[in-house]
Amino acid sequence: MTEMYIPTYDDVKAAHERIRPHIHETPVLTSSYFNELTGADLFFKCENFQKAGAFKVRGASNAVFGLSDEQAAKGVATHSSGNHGLSLSYAAGRRGIPVSVVVPRTAPEAKKEAMRGYGATVVECEPSTTSREAVFADVVAKSGADFVHPYNDHRVIAGQATCSKEFMQQTDGLDAIVAPIGGGGMISGTCLTLSNIAPETEIYAAEPKNADDAYRSFKAGHIIADDAPETIADGLKVPLKERTWHFVSNHVTDILLATEQEIIDAMYLTWQRMKIVIEPSCAVPLATILKNREVFAGKRVGVIITGGNVDLKKLPWMHS
Amino acid sequence: MTEMYIPTYDDVKAAHERIRPHIHETPVLTSSYFNELTGADLFFKCENFQKAGAFKVRGASNAVFGLSDEQAAKGVATHSSGNHGLSLSYAAGRRGIPVSVVVPRTAPEAKKEAMRGYGATVVECEPSTTSREAVFADVVAKSGADFVHPYNDHRVIAGQATCSKEFMQQTDGLDAIVAPIGGGGMISGTCLTLSNIAPETEIYAAEPKNADDAYRSFKAGHIIADDAPETIADGLKVPLKERTWHFVSNHVTDILLATEQEIIDAMYLTWQRMKIVIEPSCAVPLATILKNREVFAGKRVGVIITGGNVDLKKLPWMHS
C-alpha cells in the first residue's frame, strides 16, 4: 500500500497560480431576503457561474495543468457522468491533450454531447460498477492516460481548495462556511484552506437525508458507504474515500441533513429570489441553514453554490 | 397643455444620489460562450439581480424619494400588473408611505401578493382600459396620491438613466448598448445618459416582432400605438408616449426585431449557459444580436438584462 499524500496549503497556492488563467474568480452575491429569513449574514459564492458550470473545473484544471509534457501527451481519463467528466474535458481541451470519460450508456445524451463539445472521447459502459471498472481499466491500459479521480485525488482537493481561498478574500472573512458533501472533494478543499488561513471559521457539510452516508460516517468515526442512494441531489450520491475522510474527520464542525422536499423548496426559492440557476446539490446548504436557524443566526455565513448544470426541461417543481 | 419637461443629466446625477441607498449596483457578467457565438465582446448588466427583481425600481425610487414630505404623506399610485407596480410598492414601502396599485383582477395572484408583501394596497379593476382609468381616477381623487406613470414621467426616466451611468463606469465604455423597448422608459434613460457622457456609443432598441409599434413609429417618424399586441415578452406590450418618443426619435441608432421563437431560444440559452434567471422581455436584445451578427461583431456591446420576474412553474419551453 502506497502512503497517502495529503495536500498542503502550499499546494493550494500553487494550484491557484496554475489554474488562474483557466477559471473564473466567481462573484459573491448577497440577498437581503435570505438574510431576513435566516437572521444570518449570508454570502453566496457562485460557482454555478464557473467555467463548465461547476467548481469541479478547479480540481480538474489543477490535475491537467500540473502534468509533465510526457504524461500529458498520453492524456487523462476518468469515470463520471456529471460535472467532473465535463470539467476534465474542459481542462484537457484547454491544454489540447486527449481525454477519455467512461460514462454509463444510460446517462443523459446532453451530458455526453457537452463532453464531446470540449473534445472528449466518451466511452460508454453498462450502468454497473463491474462494467464501469472493466471498461475504465481497458481505457487506461490502452492509452496510458492519467486517472483523475473525481475527488479522492490530492491534486483535485488542492484545486477545489482555491474556492474558499478566493471566498475568504472576497468577504474579508466568515464565521462559518456551508458546502454540500458527496464524495467530499469540495468540503476537503474547504477544510484544507480554512484550517490553514482561518482555523476559527466553522465548516458545515450539508447532505441529503436520503444519502446520509457522510453523516453516519462522521458520527461513527469511520467511512460508511451506501449502495446507490436515491436523491434529487445527484452530485451527492457517492461515498467518502480515504483522502476526503481525512479532512472530514479532522476539520468538519458538523454535518447537517435536508429532506428531498426541503432541497427542492430551497432550490425553488433561490431561483425565485436570487434569479440564479442552481443545481439541486447546491440547494442543500441553504436548506440546512433554513432549518437550523439557531446554528447560523447572527453569523457571517458563506454558502458555496457548487454548480448550475440542470436540465431546464425537467425541473423538480414541474413534477410536484 | 402643460409644457413637457425633459430631464437633464443633472437630474440623472441627482437621481443616482437619491436612490443609491435603496438599490443595488448590479453586477456586470460576461460569457465567453456568447462572445464566440456573436463575435462581439458582450457585457450583461444584470438588473434581474436588482431590488424587486427589475430595473424599474430605479425610476420608482427616484419618484418616491423625491417627493416633498407633504406630498409623500398622501402617497403614490400607479396602474401596472408588472414590475413597475412591484417596484413602486417596494420604494413606497422603504419610505413608509401609502401606495395604491390598480391591477386587472385577472392578473396573477402571485404578483398581487408580492405587491401587498411590500405594503401596497392592491385595487382591482376589470381588464379593460375604460375600467382601469375609471378605477384609477377614483383612487387618486380619494387619496390625493401622486401618479407615478410607469415610463412617461421625467422622474422615472431620470431614474432608469442611472443604469447606463453605472454600466459605462463598470465597463470603462462601450461601443453600443442594446436594451428592450416597450413604453421606452429604459431606452429613454439610456439615451439621456449616453447622449451626455458617451454620445458616440450606439443605442439599439430591441423589440418583439409581434409588438413592433416602436419599430413602426421609428420608421414613420411619429408615434404609432397598437391595441393589445400579443407577445411572450409581456413587459414590452405598451406603446411609446411623448416623453419617451422624444428620446427614441432623437437618439436611438436603430430598432431591431425578434420573433417569439427567437426570444424563447435566446432566453433558454441564457438560462442554460449563463445560469441566470431572466424574463422573456430581456431575452429580446440577445435575440436581436444573434440574428444581426454583422451589426455587432468586433464591438464592445452592453446588454441590459432588465429583470428576472418569471413564473418558474410556467416556462415557455415547457409548452414547446
Assembly state:
homodimer
The Rg value of chain A, from CA coordinates, equals: 18 Å
Shape of chain A: globular
Largest interface: A-B, 20 and 20 residues
Q: What's the N-to-C terminus distance of chain A?
A: 49 Å
Briefly note the structural class of the backbone of chain A: alpha/beta
Low-confidence stretches of chain A: none
Give the number of domains of chain A.
2
Number of helices of chain A: 14
Q: Strand content of the residues of chain A, in percent?
A: 15-25%
At CATH level 3, the topology of the largest domain in chain A is Rossmann fold
Order of helices and strands of chain A: HEHEHHEHEHEHEHEHEHHEHHHE
Largest sheet of chain A: 6 strands, mixed
Total number of β-strand segments of chain A? 10
Q: What is the typical, i.e. mean, pLDDT of chain A?
A: 95
State the CATH class of the largest domain in chain A.
Alpha Beta
Strand order of the largest sheet of chain A: 1-2-10-7-8-9
- The CATH architecture category of the largest domain in chain A equals 3-Layer(aba) Sandwich
Residues in helices of chain A, as a percent range: 40-55%
What does this structure look like?
The structure is a homodimer of 320-residue chains. The first copy, chain A, has 2 domains: 9-54 and 153-318, Rossmann fold (3-Layer(aba) Sandwich), CATH 3.40.50; 57-147, Rossmann fold. Chain A has 14 helices and 10 strands. Chain A has helices at residues 9-19, 32-38, 56-65, 69-74, 83-95, 109-117, 129-143, 154-171, 185-197, 213-220, 242-251, 260-274, 284-291, 293-296, and strands spanning 28-29, 41-46, 76-79, 99-104, 121-125, 146-147, 176-180, 202-208, 254-258, 300-305. In chain A, α9 (185-197) links the parallel β7 (176-180) and β8. The N and C termini of chain A lie far apart (49 Å). The mean pLDDT of chain A is 95. The A-B interface holds A 27, 29, 46, 48-49, 53, 268, 271-272, 274-278, 308, 312-313, 315, 317-318 and B 27, 29, 46, 48-49, 53, 268, 271-272, 274-278, 308, 312-313, 315, 317-318.
